[in-house]
Write a structure and sequence with these properties.
Length: about 160
């Protein structure tokens, strides 16, 4: 099989890469582009650890083929902070100790950011519903939900 030439934008940067037609976007992000913040948890789209946004839509990158990224815009956890300045969600996760082992954290942060871009004033139920596709095996979710709600409040000013 011949490789496919892909042009895309990742975290605001124009990127080109070659991929096999059956390679997942997750594998390309981690192995070819060295964007290792996106984690593989299950490989079947059940855990959300590999969450990214693709053309503004929250997706599990393990379920997307790299070839599908052609002429698209991708955001990963690496694009969340502004240099050394953390995104308010990242800071609130630290403030609320809303992380433990960290495998799920990048996916949850990307998902929460996606939520707050669509709904800057979510209820606790809306946050829980939106993050239901992101599994955390270490926390009880309460600190995560509180961190997201606190970040939403700060971001609204």
């Amino acid at each position: 099989m011949s490789q496919v030439h892909i042009k895309t934008k990742i975290n605001g940067d124009n990127i080109e890469f070659l991929c096999d037609p059956e390679e997942t976007l997750l594998d390309i992000l981690r192995d070819k582009l060295h964007l290792t913040g996106t984690k593989e948890g299950c490989g079947t789209g059940d855990c959300g650890a590999c969450s990214i946004t693709l053309d503004g839509k929250l997706v599990c990158s393990c379920l997307v083929l790299g070839a599908e990224a052609d002429n698209s815009e991708i955001s990963t956890i690496e694009g969340m902070s502004n240099g050394e300045k953390l995104h308010p969600l990242q800071q609130k996760f630290l403030d609320h100790a809303a992380l433990q082992c960290g495998v799920c954290t990048p996916g949850i942060l990307v998902a929460a950011k996606s939520l707050l871009e669509k709904n800057p004033d979510p209820t606790e139920s809306e946050v829980r519903y939106w993050l239901a596709g992101n599994l955390c095996r270490c926390t009880g979710y309460d600190k995560i939900i509180k961190a997201v709600l606190d970040a939403a409040k700060e971001m609204r000013g």
